[in-house]
Amino acid sequence: MSHVSLLINAPANQARNILESLFCEAFHCDQAQLTSKTHTLQDAQGHTMTQSLKLAGPDLILTTQKDADTVTTTYTIVPLDASSCTIGLSETALSSVKSRQLNYSFFSLPVVDLITKKRLKRRLRVLKYRIEMGDQPC
Question: Considering Cα of 108, then 112, then 114, then 117, what sign does the dihedral take?
Answer without folding.
Answer: negative
